[in-house]
Amino acid sequence: MKPSMKIDLVSDTVTKPTPGMMKAMMEAELGDDVFREDPTVRRLEEKMAALFGHEAALFCPSGTMTNQIALKINTQELDEVIMDVTSHVYLFELGGYSFNSRVAIHLLHGEDGKFTAEDVKNAIKPKLDWMPNSRLVVIENSSNRGGGNYYTLDEILPIASFCAKNGLKLHLDGARLFNVLAETGESTRDWGRPFDTISICLSKGLGAPVGSCLIGKAEAISRARKIRKVMGGGMRQAGILAAAGIYALDHHVERLKEDNDRAKRIGACLKTLPMVREVKPVKTNIVIFSMKEPLTAEWMLQELAKRGVRATTIGPGAIRFVTHLDFTGEMCDHLIALLEEMGNLVV
Ligand SMILES: *Cc1c(COP(=O)(O)O)cnc(C)c1O
Questions:
Q1: Which domain-ending residue is among 236, 251, 266?
Q2: Number of domains in the chain
Q3: Hey, whose CA ends up nearest to atom 3 of ligand 1?
Q4: Is the pTM of this model over 0.70?
Q5: What is the average pLDDT across 116-131?
Q6: Contact predicate 307/268, CB 8 Å
Q7: Percentage of residues in the chain with pLDDT exceeding 90?
Q8: 101 plus 153 within the same structural domain
Q9: Are 161 and 195 in contact (CB under 8 A)?
């Protein structure tokens, strides 16, 4: 056992650039991207668009910005956006749908972040003067608050076809889509087809320090570029960051399965511990669990902190671990040993 080993499972955003990524950043060819003269940003945007079979992509500072731009370009005032009550767009973006786009929202109560075409059908408003126009549906895959739960493409297609038939736009918050594809083996190209816009985070499991891309039709992305600018997100020699994104796409996609597998190992271990009340089914790189009373999540987090493990709560009584690039196999073995030891101390 190495008591000095520090483990950070707060989020998959805590990763630092690897030496290889750092090298790619240092060697990036740069220009002023506000004038569209940064070749590295352009290369990242073209690569992302091609991956998803779309016409264009836009490099942005954050996934919050790509989601907020997507809401803005896919709606008008007096429109309504349909999304799950657990979604990042609803919970963790300060109600930006109201601040930036002045739209109404309709919340769905799906299962661990997932809803169906039937749910969308029941949510759309009749065309009446006193009702907002149902305009946009937001899918989050994987679902963060849903504990890394995911939709397969087969589950998306009925929603997409309902949206297409009823004049609804469809946006994918794919902050962690690549963790899903590591499980399903589905292709980015197939995932590109059903959506008007797609947001992909480079700074989560992919391990880049900063950045997300918004992907869509050329016309949508050219409007998105203006919205990014008015939000203050026009960046100059951003190629230094885009280089990290390109490196991540080339080197860190295949390995995401390791993160998912480690999360599953931790989930299986937690399940055997008498002090643990419930572990949500582990589907990707997120583990959510709760403690048996009278033990609390706060107590567990303190005990973990004493042992060099940092994690966080997500909702009342629920602890979240997120595995990532800087959480190694050795750290996973160490954590499992720690958890088993704690489980023996407290029953
Ligand atoms: C992290 C995340 C985002 C974007 O977050 P930023 O921190 O703004 O990059 C969007 N959606 C989901 C589901 C996320 O987990």
A1: 251
A2: 2
A3: 63
A4: yes
A5: 97
A6: no
A7: 96
A8: yes
A9: no
